[in-house]
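Journal club prep — side note

Before the paper discussion, L.F. wants everyone to see what a predicted structure for a comparable chain looks like in token form. Sequence:
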Amino acid sequence: MTSAVTITRHGGTGGGTAVAARARQVVKAYGSGETRVVALDNVDVDIARGEFTAIMGPSGSGKSTLMHCLAGLDTVSSGQIYLDDTEITGLKDKKLTQLRRDRIGFIFQAFNLLPTLSALENITLPMDIAGRKPDKGWLAQVVETVGLKDRLKHRPNQLSGGQQQRVAVARALAARPEIIFGDEPTGNLDSRAGAEVLGFLRRSVDELGQTIVMVTHDPVAASYADRVLYLADGRIVDEMFKPTADSVLDRMKDFDARGRTS
């Protein structure tokens, strides 16, 4: 059986990177007694600010559960989740909803665009709902980064799948969240469109200073990240910095082989 490892702050040449989010001794369990299933088993992890982190693992490893708990979309059974210095575990629903709206961005497989709105209207929709005016300079920079300048008046049905997902990426970026979570954000795209979206996510980190956490099963997608966390049986069992598609694939094969022999 693979033992858990404690994943702590990643320090670069500067000797310590600011932490955007962190989990401390997080347990997420479903059911009780003999039917109890532990999805997360005493997880400790820091998510570095201004970096792209990928979370990988076999089906049922807890990777989506970890992301949902870090994002405040799911509750924990015990332990603490922090966004910057704010503990989100235990927040009342209203406060948690406000925090997710104001400080967190989301990108999912389903583009979740409103068909009656233009690309620009879809991008600014969360801010419109919150009664906030977009920062025009920042919005223009985001639109430029994701390459949508000439498509802003188009409705979703006039856009390709890759363009729709780029609208979803721009929507997440436009509100200037502290952190963006993506759950298989390229899962519904072909390889070319997926590469486009992943390139834009990479650029948003490099050029806009965004912090991104992405759950994926795809070694190619993970290779766009600065760091890959590997989960197995609800525990973080390994990490990799500066991943390549080949190195990620080799590591996954190692886990598969261990699983067959354990």
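L.F.'s comment for the group: The chain is about 35% helix and 25% strand. Keep this in mind when we get to the figures.
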